[in-house]
Protein 1
Amino acid sequence: MAALDRLAHERYGKNVLALAVRFILDQGPTIALWGARRPDQLAPIDDVLGWRLDDETRVAIDRVLAELITDPSARSSWRRRRATRPTAASLLFDHEPARIATR
């Protein structure tokens, strides 16, 4: 996830959480639910508003995930999802666990 966090910082000055939520919102008519329990947990919402992911960033996210996903079953699951979503980044935001290589 460090590579995606770095990508978010370098391209948008944001963190990986903002990148993930922005990805969900950029999918079209959709809702990103924010599970805050305390008011201070709502502060990061501001980092998600007022910008969009560009196509170049979506390609970069795909590249990073292709390098990091080491479990073949997760990789095939990722490919199935990719057929219905525009980028592999959707793997990050689904609840099915995958083995991610650490660097």
Note: The CA atoms of residues 7 and 60 lie 8 Å apart.
Protein 2
Amino acid sequence: MTTRQHLTAAAASAFSLGAAFVVGQNWATPAANGAASRAYTLRMGDKVSVPAIGQVCSLSTEGGAADLFCSRPRNSHHQVTFFRDTILVWKEGRPDSPVWSGKP
């Protein structure tokens, strides 16, 4: 290959990468914003679906304390419960041994 062919190949590669970047930025799914765009007030028994992450959450009580219980409707591996002062994560069907717990 001659120097001219190398330069032509390099220019074509650079143009292709630039075009792919522009196309990806214009048609890609936008990243989630850090700020909530909507706020909802849930009442006991309400269910919320979050399609972007494939989760369904329900507001209920356990031992007299309100909790928000979230899991995938199908093929779930883990379940998450949000209490006022604790977050618990456990493997599906094993609520007595959480794999992670923390403070909100």
Note: The CA atoms of residues 17 and 23 lie 10 Å apart.
Protein 3
Amino acid sequence: MWDHFEQEPAPFWMVYRPSGGEPTMQHEDFDTAMAEAARIARKHADRVYVLKAVGYMATACPPVMWRRMYGGENAEDREYVETYGPDEQ
């Protein structure tokens, strides 16, 4: 459920050209990214940046809740709340 938070991603580098176009590929090491940046700079006679990923944003799973549709609370309801967390509004 929370795999994208529990697994530490491997570091990677990307090459960025502010004027657009290529590239969109991740590089596993700095040297490979530098070689790609040099290739693109020569091809387009443009400024090219080598960027290292330092973190990421990820969407957390929404909370799960139990709500009885009719009638009052009973012992089974309390068990579900204790197991899965409080009812959030």
Note: Helices lie at 3-6, 30-44, 75-84.
